[in-house]
Amino acid sequence: SEMCIRDRVSTQSTGPFCGDGIIDNGEQCDDGARNSDTTPNACRRSCTLPRRGDGIVDDLYGERCDSTQLNDFSGACSTTNVPNACRTFRAPANRLVDLSRAFDKSSPVFTYDGSSTAPPCSEGWKWFVFQKIQTLDEVQYERLSAYFPVGNARGPQPLNGRSFSYTATEPAVCGDGLAEKTEECDEGELNSNTPDSCRKNCRRPACGDGILDAGELCDDGAKNSASGPCGTNCKWAGFEGCAPGNKTCTAPGATTINVIFANLLSGSKCTGNCPSA
To answer: Which residues pair with 10 in a beta bridge?
Structure first.
């Protein structure tokens, strides 16, 4: 652009830039001198709109908090830019919660009468200790630590005449949604003897189970045989490369031999112009 100075024309020109008050290509906004990296709801100095995680609470964009660190559910500000807090809701009266699904029933359990691990360490507690160690993710650990800033465990204590019992592992129940012991999978009500599903006997899909799964050309179950028609690898025996279900195609490079079976059965002999064998 040309600038006129005291009736003289300047040949100096400037291209578009962030902060010139004009929204150019690649810019989300541009309010010129009003661009700010500290003012709520303002166009940023990089000519971008306010965003989550920039440390500025932009209320016009629905934010109630904004941390310069990564907003998540372990800190003060959530990923939706509202303060993390316990929420309350009313569940249907007929909703049932099966707490048994929260525990690993494949683990043996030690049971004994003890006391609280937090002051005043009162008696009258019954402890159930799983032999198989459970795990927590990082967020769960941080939330648990926040509730017990001085810890929630005590060192080994004398038995003081107490006894404990040991409960062996409960038998696995196929169909309960927990893959236990010898179960290869368990998707509960989704278990099905259909292609690519966890089977009703809690086994993964496998060649030889009589169900045609992904990657298999055939599966006749116990009838799979090296001599075919369906091979032990769930591919057509002797017909490698054939399309699924096509038992009569020939492998690439194979030689086709035409035989007149009617003549062979009748004992006829071909004379004259005979078809080549």
So the answer is: 3
CB count within 10 Å of CB 125 equals 12
Residue 58's nearest CA partner among 73, 72, 44 is: 44
Give the span between the Cα atoms of 205 and 212, in whole angstroms: 9
Q: In this structure, what DSSP letter does residue 236 have?
A: B
Please, are residues 202 and 188 in contact by the beta-carbon 8 Å criterion? no
Question: d(Cα 102, Cα 217) in Å, to the nearest integer?
Answer: 40
The full length of the chain comes to: 277
> What are 71-105's pLDDT values in tens digits?
666 667 877 788 877 666 666 777 777 777 677 77
With CA atoms as reference, report the closest residue to 105 among 35, 173, 26: 173
| Closest to 66 (Cα-Cα) out of 40, 34, 85, 31 | 40
pTM: 0.34
The residue whose two tokens read 């049971």 is 111
Within 10 angstroms of residue 131's Cβ, the number of other Cβ atoms is 13
Tell me the residue type at 272: G
Torsion of CA 119, 123, 125, 128, to 10 degrees: 90
